[in-house]
Amino acid sequence: MVEAALGHRKTISILGATGSVGLSTLDLIRRNRDSFDVVAVTANTNVDELAKLAIEFDAELAVVADELQFTALKQALAGSHIKCASGEDGLLAAAQANAELVMAAIVGSAGLSPTLAAVNRGATIALANKECLVCAGDLFMEQASKSGARILPVDSEHNAIFQVFDFNAERSVEKIILTASGGPFWDRRRDCLKDVTPAQAVKHPNWTMGQKISVDSATLMNKGLEVIEAYHLFPVRVDQIEVVVHPQSVIHSLVQYVDGSVLAQLGSPDMRTPIAYALSWPERMSAPVDRLSLAAIGNLTFAEPDLVSFPCLRLAKEALAEGGAAPLVLNAANEIAVEAFLQGKLGFMDISSLVKATLDKVDMKAPQSLSMVCEYDQEARSLASQLLAKFER
Ligand code: NAD
Ligand code: MG
To answer: Is the CB of 18 under 6 A from ligand 1?
Structure first.
């Protein structure tokens, strides 16, 4: 394998360093130590892992979101020069620390405030935390254009589109096509999905990911969130975004042009490829992923998504078309539903029912500021939590 150092050393902070995307990011940095200086790392509660990573990568700042873990973090880092912080202020300090690149890899709307803080100081954002764009896409992209922050998509589909989208000829793009693995149940019908367990739902056939996104992949909500994410990232209309099920996860997404050409990005299903692309952009860096062997794979297959068995994708598309606060409410209700499902309190098919019930109940205008987004997010969460009782097992 050819090893290539980047043209210059980059400073980087990793929000959500202990998660699946965070650890893959650090794995790449570990293999390319000459190209990166780690400034800040954050985690939700896992202090031991956070301290270990902060020491290994010689970070300047380690932040644990859970304030109750602050003392434990200080103890774990005693004797080192690494500064410690906790809570919302700590996350903001990590986002505002002086790093040119910020990997936004917190899961859920909890990542919005810190990621926006990095956007507002004009940092380059490697964006994995798709919920940021679902909750506050207009605000997020507006702030990025004001501050000059560049957003580099890490989500594999959006990273693929970013690689093949001709930004110099936007009007020659007819549509973008997001591929969906379909998750572990894509060929099952509705009546065979009722009794799916959390353990079955998080067992993704192609990708190793955090629990929340794994459940989202199984319900196809992940693809719905990605349609909304794509709408904000790329200059396309809602009706120019299509989804096709592609169970092998080899083609990561496609762009169709007015002349009938369709350009795609392919690769093994390993997040280290899109992460490497975002870390090294506009250059490329080596990534230790399995090389694609098309002859060994033999067949690539495609199917229409089944919106009856997987209503979450339909709900997300409807929320995007409705606009205003609908995508935010969809996301908040989904976060509550997925957590309840993982705790065994909610059935698999009731995830979409709870999201729909919450959307039906809420009447909110489009939020105009971050504080309004946070307020609406809390309101939608508490409503979804109340409605949960109707569906609880
Ligand atoms: P994960 O659950 O493995 O990790 C999440 C990280 O966020 C952890 O470091 C955790 O400590 C931190 N975190 C969780 N809750 C927090 C809170 N309330 N406050 C502060 N920090 C918190 O998740 P993941 O799979 O790495 O996904 C991260 C994001 O990337 C998600 O938005 C996901 O949709 C997106 N994404 C992930 C993948 C993947 O392959 N895992 C692919 C594409 C996109
Ligand atoms: Mg994706």
So the answer is: yes
Q: Is the beta carbon of 210 within 6 A of some atom in ligand 1?
A: yes
Q: What share of the chain is helix, strand, coil (3-state, %, to 5)?
A: 50, 15, 35
Average pLDDT over residues 3-13: 84
Distance CA 110, CA 104 (A): 11
Reply yes or no: is the peptide bond before residue 235 cis, omega within 30 of 0.
no
Instruction: Provide the pairing of β-strand 61-64 with 36-43.
Output: parallel
| Ramachandran angles phi, psi of 226, nearest 5° | -70, -30
CA distance 330 to 322: 11
214 alpha carbon – ligand 2 mean position (Å): 10
- Say which amino acid occupies 255: V
Choice from 14, 15, 20, 116 to test ligand 1 binding pocket (greatest atom count within 8 A of CB): 20
Band (393; pLDDT cuts 50, 70, 90): confident
CA of 4 to the centre of ligand 2 (A): 27
* Both tokens assigned to 209: 């990911």
The pair of structure tokens assigned to 101 is 């690149």
Strand partners, 46: none
Q: Is the CB of 257 under 6 A from ligand 1?
A: no
Q: Is the pLDDT of residue 3 over 60?
A: no
Q: What is the DSSP string of 207-271?
A: ----HHHHHHHHHTHHHHHHHHHHHHHSS--GGGEEEEE-TT--EEEEEEETTS-EEEEE--S-T
User: Which tens digits make up the pLDDT trace of 232-282?
Assistant: 999 999 999 999 999 999 999 999 999 999 999 999 999 999 999 999 999
Nearest ligand 1 atom, CA 225: 34
Q: Is 20 in the pocket of ligand 1 (CB under 6 A)?
A: yes
Ligand 1 atom 21: residue of nearest CA: 44
Quote the pLDDT of residue 4: 55
Ligand 1: does its nearest atom lie under 6 Å from the Cβ of 14?
no
The minimum-distance atom of ligand 1 relative to the CA of 17 is 9
CB 376 within 8 A of CB 369: no
Helix (H) or strand (E) holding 279: helix 272-280
What is the pTM (predicted TM-score) of this model? Answer: 0.97
Q: Rounded distance, CA 103 to CA 13, Å? A: 6
